[in-house]
Structures are given as C-alpha cells and as structure tokens.
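User: Second chain of the day. Same drill as before.
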Amino acid sequence: PEEFRAAAEAFGLAGLPWCGTMSFDTAGRTMMGMTSSDMVKMIDELDNPPLAFGANCGTGASDILRTVQGFVAQGTECPLISKGNAGIPKYVDGHIHYDGTPELMADYAVMARDSGARIIGGCCGTMPEHLTRMRDALDSRPRAERPTLEQITEALGGFSSASDGTGDAPAPERRSRGRRRRG
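Assistant: Same format as last time:
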C-alpha cells in the first residue's frame, strides 16, 4: 500500500494521470495482507486517485476474477484492470511453463469484462497467441451477466484456496524468509 500511495503522490506532483495494480495471492490478499475491499477504500482516500486500478499477476485466471468481483462488490466507480497470468507456473524440463491455453485466456478475458473489468490483459506466461485469442473473444462474444463463482470455476478451473480475502478473517501469518542454518 505504501508504494501505491507513493505512486499517487509522485504522479500528482508531476501532473500526470496514472493507473495502478497490485498482485493478490491465492488467499485474495496482497503480500502486505491488503484485501480487495481494503484497496478500494485506499483508492477512495487518495488525493490523486488513479484513472483505473486493479489486480495483476499473483494467481491464475479464476482467482484474479474473484478479486475483480471483490472490487465490484465495494461499489467502486473507478474503471477496473484485470491482468491475469496465463495459468499456473510449472517447472518442466528446466524451464517455467504456464498451463493456460489461448482458449482459456479467451474465456478469462470475456469473464473479466463481464465481471466488471474495463482494461484486460495478461501477465506472466501470456504470449501473442493468448492476446490474439483474448482480443478475438472480446470482439466476437456478446456481453453477458456477471459470472457467478461457479461459472468461473467451470470455465477456468477451481480457486487456489477457499479464502477470497473479502471476509473478516485475519491475514495468514507470514513466515520468516531468513536463511536456514546448516549444521
């Protein structure tokens, strides 16, 4: 949140418009424990709010749509951004590969639009083939009602966790990432 506030201040001092995203994990929270609800509240309190805000990276397509729907549930009027990863990273033959197909990303793009996102893209693992399919799907498929969580999981796969970061449960404790001692 501090970096987001600093960006708002810097762009304000420069007199420039800006957009900003944060990464939400599988529990629907940023690294610092911020929920989608917290982000909307922060945006509303900024002296220089962004032209658009949203979520990027962090999770697969279904999880990021749940975060977008969390923004919408707060009643924000600010345009929303959704830039999901092209699937989940997997280590195969010495390289990281993402398992999201161009077809899956096309479905993601349409569901992102129907969930309320106005700026839609991809993050890690997104290739030109994904973007082409996403654009084609957005151009050719009619707008629909906001998808339910069940419809999202049927089309894009299950959520990474039961938590969406919108409840009152405290953020999970972060484990120290200090170095291990070797005996």
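The longest strand covers residues 117-122.

User: Great, on to the next one.
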